[in-house]
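Lab channel / #folding
Pinned by the channel admin:
"Please post every new chain as: sequence first, then the structure tokens as a reply. Keep commentary short and put observations after the output so the thread stays searchable."

First post following the new format, from NK:
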Amino acid sequence: MEPGDIAWVLVSAALVLFMTPGLALFYGGMDRSRNVLNMLMMNFWCLLIVPIVWVIAGFSLAYSGSGSFIGNLDWTLLSDLGIAAEDAGGDGGKLILAAIFLGMFAVITPALISGAVADRMKFSAWAIFVPAWILLVYCPVSFWIYGGVWGDGLTGWLGVRGSLDFAGGTVIHVNAGIAALAAVLLLGKRKGWPREGHPPHSMPLVMLGTGILWFGWFGFNAGSAFAANGTAIQAFMNTFLAAAAGGLVWGVVERIKDGHFTNLGVASGIVAGLVAITPGAGYVSGMSPIWIGAAAGLICAFAVRLKFKAGYDDALDVVGVHFVGGLIGSLLIGLFADPEFFGAEFEAGLLNGGGIGLLVEQFIANAVTIVFSFIVTALILLAIKAAIGIRVSDEEEDSGLDVSQHAETAYNVGEVTMGRG
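Reply from TO:
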């Protein structure tokens, strides 16, 4: 790889890493004050445990080998990964660079689920769930889409069929979003929901988290080009436009429907736009990212309200934003994919001279992911429930998870300093 490409991917990896603390602030601000530290720790737990699991076995299972359904164990414990130059029989560190960059994606994916289970999940159950979910759900789905690409060529069965996912719409957002739905159905509703309101306790934290997410998402999408090239430039532009369109449309929907242009609505719309452009960031061009972001802002603004009619308590709207937004973006590749613009060989979308073939492949890939992720996530949680339980007691829920799970409080509001004495 060229030194400039290596530098860009390393910087992008750092940007993606920064997204997980950003997500923690975004979710923490939306949560109630007595549970904010628990939400932060659920996200930081992913930063602690997933990198270890990733280098032990996750990277190898998600990308190595020549099979169709799961990787082999050739790269476990970082075996056969080095930095020797090509003329010395190595790859110059390309596989280690891939493990670094893709490991950041592995970190944030289960962290997305934390927003759905806020206020009521045992931290001990979460601690077990995250590594189990990475190995049993995230790695297989990753391999189906991307498997073999870092070896001798693409071999994952959905990728071979022709499904496209540039930076993780199916693998990350649809996968985590449907897992979140399985989790909340098994956990049950929070006490008092929906009768009692659960408004965000700190909108400044939400907006700060949104800004960090948007900033980091440039590495998420443009870094997925794995080079400092034209595709990275276009992915960067697409990310910028889709987020703006998503936030704008969600805000306008709220203004028309409820009479107010809210910070929470704009923040949610920005994230919905970012989610939706992720799968197609390196496949669409021109005005397409604006239409994709606008579609996500519009549809997700209504999707987050479905939980009240359907009766599932998705605390921080993971299903409505990440699952629905990821699905929208992935399917819209089938309309807007533009191989001529990128000088690439992927199939064109319906609006760019292609047939319905790509749209069908996008539907199949997401349908398979939805069914697999939902079932295996439910089985993981049922096993944990049988072993140690997954939900805190009513008393712990009332007192707050910061105290009951971590023996800490975020805000010492009772302490008032009266002077130096």
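NK: The chain has one domain: 3-391.
TO: also worth noting, Residues 415-421 have pLDDT under 50 and may be disordered.
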